[in-house]
Amino acid sequence: MDALFNETSLQLVQRIFGVVFPLAAIAAVGFLYARKRPTDMAVANRINIDVFIPALIFSVMASSDFRLLDYLPLAFGALVVVLGSALVAWPFCRWLGVAPKTLLPPMMFNNSGNLGIPLLVLAFCEAALPAAIVMFVVSNLLHFTFGIYILEGHSRPLQTLRMPIILATFAGVVWSVWNLPLPEPLFISIDMLGQIAIPLMLFALGVRMTDVDFSQWKLGLWGTVLSPLSGLIPVLLLQPLLQLDAQQFGYLLLFAALPPAVLNYMLSEKYQQEPDKVAAMVLMGNIGSLLFIPVVLAFIL
């Protein structure tokens, strides 16, 4: 019995290592490269957001085996994670002495792109890619509407609708619902562009890690702990209402445990909303995820 338990534990550790190591390795390459040769990823990130990620979204949603209705409960679950995180984190604003505009966005909008998509694919194989895309789209749609409203006091829905990621999502929905044909050479071209997105996101995350500022380390540490907890608590409380099957519940738990998105720092810098504090939460949160993610994976797997 002990031998069987030890063998099972070893297999679990090996599987978790197999999931986490490729992500950490690619990010480490970006980090080491940028340390040796300071690198500006602004152009590459813009191309990724405007071309490669939209291509990935469309290629997944337009594929013949993608059924949109199957993912509606999961999309609602992602909505619960984002909005529920704000409710959980709100009381901590006064306790930590931090403005809600500074604390809430990093707790609400997680790294569902750079980390979430490759993490779910490695943990659950290619079958999880559509689910990862759906949760990523929900998070980003809320980020560029409700998230901007938090920072600016109003949102720009028409500007949001013109974003390539949103346009690709709408196009993917149309192709999925009406099952429209797509010439195979064209689909292969779009799919190949989309395959660039995931490794480039991880590499860019590693490059961003070179900018870690430890002057706000206390808030960064609190954010590291609060970010996954504020996402996991709503999921665990509302699962009896959501009634997700075991597989989608696992997807949502992993999504909820992700660290803050790097985009939070970019927007805080744009709107001058204490970017040094947001940067500490984002970057330390992503480093801390190397501890939290394996724990969640052990529970799910």
UniProtKB/TrEMBL annotation:
What keywords is this UniProt entry annotated with? Cell membrane, Membrane, Transmembrane, Transmembrane helix, Transport
Gene Ontology BP, a term: transmembrane transport
According to its UniProt record, where is this protein located? Answer: Membrane
- Look up keyword DNA-binding and say if it applies: no
Q: How is this protein positioned relative to the membrane?
A: Multi-pass membrane protein
Question: Which residue ranges does UniProt annotate as crossing the membrane?
Answer: 12-34, 46-62, 74-96, 163-180, 186-207, 219-237, 249-267, 279-300
Principal cellular location given in the protein's record: membrane
Keyword Heme listed? The answer is: no
Q: Can you name a GO cellular component term? A: membrane
Q: Where is the signal peptide?
A: none
What the entry lists under Pfam families is as follows:
Mem_trans
Protein known as: AEC family transporter
Provide the species name.
Natronospirillum operosum
